[in-house]
Amino acid sequence: MVAGNVKSQARGTLYAFIICLVTVIGGFALISLGKSVIGISAIIVSLASLAGVFVYSKREQNKERVDKQGALMSRKAH
Q1: Which of 2, 47, 48, 73 has the fewest CB atoms in 10 Å of its CB?
Q2: b/e per residue 10-32 (b: at least 16 CB within 10 A)
């Protein structure tokens, strides 16, 4: 089960990188075609969403770690 979760997370990270890369390249292509506002917007939105997902996942991991640690401590107390 752990190996499957690791594979799934690695695949998700790869897909997110590919989507972000395509969006950034598309943004630069739009800038080169004279659509600078749309191109810059695409780049900023892509990078901001990537950063948001990273921050959210780290927060969830920390929350899960604290919950598991609390459950372990309560088991040891009994």
Answers
A1: 2
A2: eeeeeeeeeebeebbeebeebbe
